Known about the structure:
mainly beta; Lipocalin; 1 helix; 7 strands
Amino acid sequence: MLKRALLGLGLMVLLMTVAVAGSVEMKDGLWEITSTTEMPGVPFQIPPMTFTQCITQQDMVPHNEQPGNECTMTDNRINGNTVAWSIVCKGEGGSSRGDGKITYHGDSFEGEMQMSMDEGMQMINHMQGRRIGACK
Protein backbone atom coordinates (compact mmCIF):
# COMPACT_ATOMS: atom_id res chain seq x y z
CA MET A 1 0.00 0.00 0.00
CA LEU A 2 2.90 2.37 0.75
CA LYS A 3 4.39 1.69 -2.69
CA ARG A 4 1.01 2.49 -4.25
CA ALA A 5 0.73 5.66 -2.18
CA LEU A 6 4.18 6.84 -3.27
CA LEU A 7 3.35 5.96 -6.87
CA GLY A 8 0.19 8.02 -6.49
CA LEU A 9 2.24 10.94 -5.20
CA GLY A 10 4.32 10.78 -8.35
CA LEU A 11 1.18 10.57 -10.46
CA MET A 12 -0.23 13.65 -8.82
CA VAL A 13 2.59 15.78 -10.09
CA LEU A 14 2.89 13.91 -13.37
CA LEU A 15 0.70 15.96 -15.65
CA MET A 16 0.42 16.10 -19.38
CA THR A 17 1.25 19.31 -21.23
CA VAL A 18 -1.61 21.73 -21.62
CA ALA A 19 -1.52 23.76 -24.81
CA VAL A 20 -3.91 26.66 -24.53
CA ALA A 21 -4.67 29.81 -26.43
CA GLY A 22 -4.90 33.14 -24.70
CA SER A 23 -2.80 34.82 -22.10
CA VAL A 24 -2.48 34.09 -18.40
CA GLU A 25 -0.62 36.48 -16.09
CA MET A 26 2.41 34.20 -15.95
CA LYS A 27 6.04 34.86 -16.84
CA ASP A 28 7.67 32.20 -19.02
CA GLY A 29 10.82 30.73 -17.49
CA LEU A 30 12.34 28.18 -15.15
CA TRP A 31 10.09 27.52 -12.16
CA GLU A 32 10.77 25.87 -8.82
CA ILE A 33 7.72 23.86 -7.75
CA THR A 34 7.13 22.42 -4.28
CA SER A 35 4.32 19.98 -3.59
CA THR A 36 3.05 18.81 -0.22
CA THR A 37 0.76 15.78 -0.02
CA GLU A 38 -2.06 14.92 2.38
CA MET A 39 -3.28 11.32 2.52
CA PRO A 40 -6.15 10.64 4.93
CA GLY A 41 -5.49 7.49 6.96
CA VAL A 42 -1.72 7.43 6.43
CA PRO A 43 0.01 7.60 9.84
CA PHE A 44 3.01 9.64 8.65
CA GLN A 45 3.71 12.89 6.80
CA ILE A 46 5.07 12.50 3.28
CA PRO A 47 8.05 14.84 2.80
CA PRO A 48 7.53 17.74 0.38
CA MET A 49 8.87 17.28 -3.16
CA THR A 50 10.65 20.09 -5.01
CA PHE A 51 11.56 20.09 -8.71
CA THR A 52 12.19 22.59 -11.50
CA GLN A 53 10.44 22.90 -14.85
CA CYS A 54 10.43 25.29 -17.76
CA ILE A 55 6.89 26.71 -17.82
CA THR A 56 5.56 28.73 -20.75
CA GLN A 57 2.21 30.02 -21.99
CA GLN A 58 2.06 26.85 -24.13
CA ASP A 59 2.88 24.47 -21.22
CA MET A 60 1.37 25.89 -18.00
CA VAL A 61 0.74 22.76 -15.92
CA PRO A 62 3.57 21.63 -13.62
CA HIS A 63 4.61 18.00 -14.05
CA ASN A 64 7.31 15.80 -12.61
CA GLU A 65 7.65 12.83 -14.94
CA GLN A 66 7.69 9.35 -13.40
CA PRO A 67 8.84 6.37 -15.51
CA GLY A 68 6.30 3.59 -16.02
CA ASN A 69 3.22 5.82 -15.78
CA GLU A 70 0.94 6.81 -18.62
CA CYS A 71 -1.30 9.82 -18.05
CA THR A 72 -3.90 11.37 -20.34
CA MET A 73 -5.36 14.83 -19.96
CA THR A 74 -9.13 14.51 -20.26
CA ASP A 75 -10.00 18.19 -19.86
CA ASN A 76 -8.23 21.52 -19.48
CA ARG A 77 -9.56 25.03 -19.18
CA ILE A 78 -8.52 28.58 -18.33
CA ASN A 79 -10.55 31.11 -16.39
CA GLY A 80 -8.65 34.36 -15.92
CA ASN A 81 -5.30 33.41 -14.35
CA THR A 82 -6.49 29.98 -13.19
CA VAL A 83 -5.57 26.86 -15.16
CA ALA A 84 -7.62 23.72 -14.36
CA TRP A 85 -7.34 20.16 -15.68
CA SER A 86 -8.55 16.59 -15.26
CA ILE A 87 -6.29 13.60 -15.74
CA VAL A 88 -6.44 9.81 -15.88
CA CYS A 89 -3.27 7.81 -15.14
CA LYS A 90 -2.37 4.16 -15.56
CA GLY A 91 0.77 2.55 -14.22
CA GLU A 92 2.07 -0.67 -12.75
CA GLY A 93 0.39 0.22 -9.43
CA GLY A 94 -3.08 0.59 -11.01
CA SER A 95 -5.05 3.55 -12.26
CA SER A 96 -6.06 6.88 -10.77
CA ARG A 97 -8.09 9.95 -11.67
CA GLY A 98 -7.59 13.53 -10.63
CA ASP A 99 -8.59 17.15 -10.93
CA GLY A 100 -6.25 20.06 -10.39
CA LYS A 101 -6.05 23.80 -10.63
CA ILE A 102 -3.44 26.47 -10.10
CA THR A 103 -3.69 30.24 -10.10
CA TYR A 104 -0.79 32.31 -11.46
CA HIS A 105 0.32 35.67 -10.06
CA GLY A 106 3.01 36.70 -12.57
CA ASP A 107 6.09 35.02 -11.10
CA SER A 108 4.36 32.72 -8.59
CA PHE A 109 1.42 30.32 -8.34
CA GLU A 110 -0.47 28.21 -5.84
CA GLY A 111 -2.95 25.42 -6.30
CA GLU A 112 -3.87 21.85 -5.59
CA MET A 113 -4.69 18.54 -7.19
CA GLN A 114 -6.96 15.84 -5.81
CA MET A 115 -6.36 12.23 -6.89
CA SER A 116 -8.47 9.11 -6.34
CA MET A 117 -7.00 5.62 -6.72
CA ASP A 118 -9.04 2.61 -7.87
CA GLU A 119 -9.01 1.04 -4.40
CA GLY A 120 -10.43 4.19 -2.83
CA MET A 121 -7.30 5.94 -1.53
CA GLN A 122 -7.53 9.73 -1.76
CA MET A 123 -4.68 12.25 -1.94
CA ILE A 124 -4.53 16.03 -2.03
CA ASN A 125 -1.40 17.63 -3.42
CA HIS A 126 -0.83 21.31 -2.54
CA MET A 127 1.52 23.09 -4.95
CA GLN A 128 3.44 26.34 -4.82
CA GLY A 129 5.65 27.62 -7.58
CA ARG A 130 7.97 30.53 -8.15
CA ARG A 131 9.86 31.68 -11.22
CA ILE A 132 13.60 31.44 -10.62
CA GLY A 133 15.03 32.52 -13.97
CA ALA A 134 15.15 31.87 -17.69
CA CYS A 135 14.74 28.41 -19.18
CA LYS A 136 18.00 26.62 -19.97
